[in-house]
Amino acid sequence: MRIICPYCGERELGEFTYLGDAKPQRPAADAGEDAVYDYVYLRDNIAGVMSEHWYHGGGCRAWLKVTRNTLTHEISAVEPAAGVGAAKVGA
Amino acid sequence: MADFSWDVRSPLDRALVAGRYGAQGDVGVSLTEIRNFDLVQVMARRGQAGEMIAAAKARFGVGAPETPKAVSASDATLIWSGPDQFFVLSKGGKHTMESLTPGFAGSASLSDQSHARALISISGEKARAIFAKLSSIDLHPDVFGVGTAAATSMDHTSVTLWRGGDRDGQAVFNLLVFATFAESLWHTILDSAAEYGATIGHSEDL
């Protein structure tokens, strides 16, 4: 599997580290225990297209948001994850 | 209390043995460690990338690279190292942390890497053949021309790679590697170079 880093271009999987689902959003401070439990522990086991965070630690050290089909490994989109590096893209 | 003597020594001081290595006969590749350089990492503060690039232009006469490139200034090389960040590489004492800091005040954070990296220059007819064993990056001149840079990994070690100006009609590849990983990667490079015959040395010429 290869990932096309928006900064570096196409690179082999070994340069990247997988974090996991990019969907969960940190709940508001007053959201309650159930919402925090859900955010920290509960993950969907998606068979199909999912949005994931990957870290290009063996390259430019940018966090990426990758849209990948877990059944076929087909990657349909890669974009910088929110953060310092992302501020640059399109600017 | 004991007196300490803080001699500056290359991370490859022990591993590098100048002379011939591997197959005898033709020299397939030249491995040269570059010593005594100043290396400063410049990273833009949030939203300040434009200001950082302008500050680099004011200082060096060329803008900082915004894509994986190495840009030559008169007495320094600016090497892309990731989004909104680059290295300033110069001869020892030329562009030091102290001398660079005022120009980037407000736009970027600086970090001195001079003694944190080893710099290895690889050239010769078989240079690409060696990298073919170490790296998955395509170094063919059609895609990796003079001045192209890459932040990548070799032998599970993060490196900054760029192609410098040609020497004797041959491509020159420069490699910055973390000081503590330099010896390990050096031995891997030697293993890769052995079958082609290498000439090994060190230099202070950037």
Question: Please, could you describe this protein's structure?
Answer:
- The complex is a heterodimer of chains A (91) and B (206).
- Chain A has 91 residues and is mostly beta strands.
- Chain A has a single domain, classed as 2-Layer Sandwich (Folate-binding fold), CATH 3.30.2270.
- Helices cover 10% and strands 36% of the residues of chain A.
- Chain A contains 1 helix and 6 strands.
- Chain A has one helix at residues 33-41; strands at 2-5, 9-12, 17-21, 49-55, 63-69, 75-80.
- In chain A, strand 4 (49-55) and strand 5 form a beta hairpin.
- Mean pLDDT of chain A is 89; it is low at 84-91.
- In chain B, the strands form 2 sheets. A 7-stranded mixed β-sheet of chain B has the order 1-12-2-8-11-10-9, with helices on one face. Chain B has a 5-stranded antiparallel β-sheet with strand order 4-5-6-3-7.
- Chain B folds into 2 domains: 19-35 and 115-203, Probable tRNA modification gtpase trme, domain 1 (Gyrase A, domain 2, 2-Layer Sandwich); 37-112, Alpha-Beta Plaits.
- The model of chain B has no long low-confidence stretch (mean pLDDT 95).
- In chain B, helix 3 packs across helix 4 (179-193).
- Helices cover 19% and strands 34% of the residues of chain B.
- Chain B has 4 helices and 12 strands; from the N terminus they run E-E-E-H-E-E-E-H-E-E-H-E-E-E-H-E.
- By secondary structure, chain B is an alpha+beta fold.
- In chain B, a hairpin with a 2-residue loop joins strand 5 and strand 6 (85-91).
**What's the β-strand tally of chain A?**
6
Biggest interface and residues each:
A-B, 19 and 19 residues
CATH superfamily of chain A: Folate-binding superfamily
- Mind summarizing the main beta sheet of chain B? 7 strands, mixed
What percent of the residues of chain A sit in helical stretches (DSSP H or I)?
under 10%
